[in-house]
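Efflux RND transporter periplasmic adaptor subunit
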Amino acid sequence: MRSSLALVFFLGVAVTASAASVAASSDAASLAYVEVTASGQSSDRSSDAKVEAVRETLLAAQVPGAIVALAVKAGDVVKAGQELARIDARMASQGAAASSAQVAAAQAGLDVAAKEYERQKQLFAKHYISQAALDGAQAQWRAAQAQVSALQAQAGVAATQTGLHSVRAPYSAIVSSVPVSLGDMAMPGRPLVSLYDPMALRVTAQLTQAQARQLRAGVQVEIPGLSVQRLSIAASQVQVLPTADPLSHTVPVRVQLPTDLQGATPGMFARLWWQGDAPDSRQRVLVPAQAIVRRAEMTGVYVEGENGKPQLRQVRLGLPQGAMVEVLSGLNAGDKVALEPQMAAKVR
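Structure:
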């Protein structure tokens, strides 16, 4: 009895497996494929890039002292001339007051020397004193003048020193980082606040010399995460620097971004697109947009394998061309791509 039940169970499993195999073969046979072809037209080229700030400033302390006020944090928008941080300036203020007092004392001495010199000139005119006495009074008057000038300069230095205890924004900007805390000791050269101008951003990429010569018609900039997928930038806003890296033999290229661009920040990933020259460009491989599969960070297509079943292959996409999408890598001319990726995913 047990042998009969086992035989029936194994026969059931075999029949189920055979039915599943037939169903999978039927699904694979019903899949619609399109053969990938290559075009000899000029190809869109691309290169990785990054967003940079044209004006990015790292404000550092110029005088020592404890940080007694910190008015900003990362992400704040500040205006030109706004106070960002303040360093304890009590000692500097006392020094400035002492210098001002010394100037006042020297000025009083100068007034006395000037009056004495005038009296000596009158006495000399009446021949009551000698020429040596007059010369001595004149020398004292000039020495008092020099002393006042020196002390006034010292007072100016002390006043300037007091102003250095207040760190202010040089232009309207966004604060990117504040690497100090309230109460920290500021030292000359220690960074206090980093900020950048959000109205002046650019994209920088490293291109080969041949690629840099292909930017005459302008470029397109793609920054993932922005509402605008691609920005068209005129050639006048593209700058190819007149230097090349001696190791990689690439040249830096800077592309000026529009001033009204929202959401872009320094350090973001970007991609440059431009039209390659026809004689130097490779064959363009295009596939229907409906054949593209996106799973998390992976982009691919189902390609017909040697066994007739679809196989998922990762690809790198270029610019869309109507209902077609250019494939930069991962496919070759002659490959067959499934037009229904959801059905292809069910075939085992």
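The domain at 90-163 is CATH 1.10.287 (Helix Hairpins).
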